[in-house]
């Protein structure tokens, strides 16, 4: 993940049984919302293999267009535009040119209420309701079309700079990255990640990045690929059962559980087994994730209000969830430390314990301090960073595929011909070219997270605009990825825009107009891991099943935290493909043991393509 906090609006107390909707396929009129998920009731009805006409979605699309048109009209009417000062600005400008010191001009400027920074950053003044009415990056997109690549958004006393210009994003993220911190993000995430790698700045970040990046070496990623296959196979079994029983399924929560199971094994060799069980620890993880999400979208820091701190039952629940997770982490660290002490393996660059290839094992073997809070903070950070981001990518990929049957067909053809009857290996990652393009394109349309957060640590210049220190900045990846001048048919899901024989698109070869994993020294450390995870999951699922939106499911709408979620789940009808390849993990592992000793160059090639920034 990411900048990010976003987590899930996932009622942990709701059992898996109700999340995998135990509902037969029923008529449209019979949906009722239940605790954030949707229940169907009624009589079974048939479905087709093509795109299902869904009038409620069309209506929804119309409504969206109307809201956008209204917003554009409000922008055009000047509602958001702040009048530029006239005479005062010219006076200050003149004095500045005459050599009057900037301290004097600053005082004068405050006194007459004008700014001496020229040219002035375009300003949009918003009512918070305009932004809060929907996923906040959508109104930011409309404002960007009006105000351009950098503008200031002011809500009462608060103000943010919104950046949607690739050159300026590059300046902040890469060229002058030292002048920027994670700002409010670090403040919001402190309760769960402490000084973990995502919120950390300065020396702590530098030291920890150097310790963690080597843990995700080639041999580790290769070992992870077979684990992704095993975890996805468990999901396939769930879907098999649902398809046989003609039950519709809510895919967003299933993807969240799949990626939780994967990241638990990958980071500290713990099997949450959340696809099968609702254990206390799974509930604790979701309690903490939801809290981080609530904080990330709250206009005021309610968690700092003294009375709330002392008496809130919600906070008590969060604290006990954190206690449980930390206790589990302590146990895992102790177990792992014993293993490290007993083993005879020498630590080296590609060190990996075959029984426990986890990042934790690598860190302890490399000499990380077992008792340190920093180690726990980093483990927690990776658990969160690597979980909801990938889940969101899978959710939106399947949503997009359900809308474009021709893309799905092409994808299935590739997977059939490359994989045939077996689980993916590292060599397949290079061959599944169209699958990779589908994911590239899904990440363009639904970047996770849609905005990156920074704060200026010193005065700087963004393009032509001078800025002061302590500016809070949102870099809108959503806007960069949908810029109509940069992308033909920017809103269209079109994996063909990325040529199969071209390089894997990244921020460097796309000049910072495409940055699904960020860029510069703080680029995602899990980019290759996550790309392979998504490729394996997509390939295995589409090989076995057809997916389409469940008949009568509510329209899929977006909501925000740090990643993009649906408001009411991704309710799908899953049907077995007519000739499902009879693949089992056991059978394929027998055949695929060689994948562990995979050709290094396959990883090296892919690595070079996926990740440009390793520091
Ligand atoms: C498709 C899935 C993922 C996406 C889209 C994604 C995206 C991102 C982005 C955009 C950033 C940059 C944030 C910023 O500059 O503010 C980031 C950072 C990070 N990601 Fe990921 N990520 C994904 C998966 C993962 C996984 C699987 C892991 C762990 C194994 C991970 C660990 C991290 C960490 C630790 C950082 C912070 C790096 C630093 O600040 O030095 N991410 N991610």
TrEMBL record:
Pfam families: p450. PROSITE patterns: CYTOCHROME_P450. The lineage of its organism: Eukaryota, Viridiplantae, Streptophyta, Embryophyta, Tracheophyta. Gene3D superfamilies: Cytochrome P450. Belongs to the cytochrome P450 family. GO terms for molecular function: beta-carotene 3-hydroxylase activity; heme binding; iron ion binding; oxidoreductase activity, acting on paired donors, with incorporation or reduction of molecular oxygen. One of its GO terms (cellular component) is chloroplast. Residues 589-615 are annotated as: Disordered. It comes from Heracleum sosnowskyi. Keywords: Heme, Iron, Metal-binding, Monooxygenase, Oxidoreductase. InterPro entries: Cyt_P450, Cyt_P450_CS, Cyt_P450_E_grp-I, Cyt_P450_sf, Cytochrome_P450_Monoox. Heme binds at residue 524. The keyword Iron applies. One of its GO terms (biological process) is xanthophyll biosynthetic process. Residues 589-608 have a biased composition (Basic and acidic residues). The keyword Transmembrane helix does not apply. Its cofactor is heme. This is Protein LUTEIN DEFICIENT 5, chloroplastic.
